[in-house]
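Homework-ish question, so no full write-ups if that breaks the rules, but can someone show me the predicted structure for this set?
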Amino acid sequence: MTITPELLAALMVVAVCVVLFAGYPVALTLGGVSLAFALIGHFTGAMNIALLGALPQRIFGVMTNEVLLAIPLFIFMGVMLERSRVAEELLESMGRLFGALPGGLGIAVLIVGVLLAAAKGVVGATTVTMGLIVLPTMLRHGYDPRLAAGTVAATATLAQIFPPATVLVLLGDQMSNAYQAAQLAQGNFAPRSVTVSDLFAGAIVPAFALVALYLAYIVAMAVLRPKSSPALSADPAAPRGLALARQLTAALIAPVLLILAVLGSILGGIATATEAASVGAVGAILLALIKLGRKEFAAVLAPVVARTTQVASMIFVILIGATLFSLVFRGLGGDDMVHRALDDLPGGAAGAVIVVMLAMFLLGFVMDAFEIIFVVVPIVAPALLKLPGVDPVWLAIMMALNLQTSYMHPPLGPTLFFLRGVAPPEITTRHIYVGIIPFVLIQLLALLVLWFAPGLATALPHRLYGG
Amino acid sequence: MPRHLATIADSIDRLIAAVGRAVMWLALAVVLLQFAVVGLRYAFGLGSIWLSESVLYAHAALFMLAAAWTLQANGHVRVDVFYADASPRAKALVDLLGALLLLLPFMAVIAWFALPYVARSWAILERSREASGLPLVYLLKTLIPLFALLMALAGIAQAIRAALVLRS
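A: Not a homework solution, just the prediction itself:
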């Protein structure tokens, strides 16, 4: 067998997946393995290593990308809210409000999860906060550990799909490049664009539909198996009536104001995602200042800034590693191979999208959502968007839903690991795996519905922004 | 010899942490400057290319210069299915091989291609394409080899520590 460039490209994908399992940081594994294949390609004549000369220009492109500027801003906002303990207070008052109902605590967790997801947009932090605070509470009140673990894990992943999810910002950036490329390739030299705001608007209906399905499941469990989710016994010392209402309002003001300020200005078409993110971040600073007082605020500022810096640089270094990967993959002709394969699939556009969705789902076993977006989307999206009837917003939301699912499906969903790390010892890995299965099925149902009803994703952005 | 190596690793780590702790405040600068851009635009209808570009500069310096610090703090995601439960020796082996075979060559190739790229920019003291933008594009581009240098240093420190674990 001779070594063709395409074979090398395919081998490189396999090699990256295998080496990743050793556990060295993903960004550097991507870069290092790609470089090794570039060298092999150079010495076997499969590619010219001078192609890597484009690397500095690509890195410079990442450095000066205004869309990606939204990432540190949203991270800052989320971390600031986390440190000002908004989540704890919300959960406490919501739990009291719904606690007396069967399944009520589960519902409270879901609502808090939605608010946090919409206010934070980073999945790891949400899982840890919820796992630490919510899970022990649910267990103490006699919830089935499987139901409790499943609810917390699934709810935490909502941060992947609810605007302003980091995933949507990154997808928006990549999708807009791909959409331009696809239209140029078809001879349209005045291409329409797709923005992060489009994706935020497109994600809203599917995200709320997901929440409704989760809610239906929690209620169904409370009705069908009352023992799994008992009502809370009344705590005589707890505030009720007016006092509870006041406490709840106070806890709700912060996240609701922020969500309105950020999402409202984006969806209203007033601001871009980056602009709204800066308003959200400054809003989070003000809320933390009011809540913590000047002295305590000064004490949390340095940790917030440090955490923001490390999460942001983690994401951007993956982007740099993925840049080298894409250059080498393209240099070896991998792009053409994938595009040909997608064009020739039986079933046309539908077949191609299904294959890509399956591939992303499987890659979710090995890679993080960020890596998949950086590595896979630039390769497949230009080919998919050229096919008839594939809308960029719809495709992006399908991908986001798919990635969110891969975040929670056993055995390797990252959320399950985050939760495993912070869950109390009486929660076993088995509890988590079994408890998440109904939610994974809900996700698959949602994907199926969105497949047949793309309007769920595309109607709102078209209505808001036209086009 | 091991003691000298440990000293070297310590010095590198101190340097990288100092850089990280200094540049992390750029995160706050990004928030406030971007907010200022938005405020000027919506309140007064003013757009300052100069100000918008300084947000981008601050952001780029933030993640390029803090990347090595993030590596040191173990902040770069790993696929830790096996790594999380591995013995300290196995972890050290992964880190040693990873630093030598993945990180250092990757940074070497970035530096190799970035140096001439940056040199060209310095030769003409490249400025923004916008007339009223910042005239400092050559400094911005210099972040690329600096990123590679700091990351390579962090990799060397990581390799030294891993080797010391393996020897003991």
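Now go work out the reasoning yourself. Hint: Residues 273-331 of chain A form the longest helix (59 residues).
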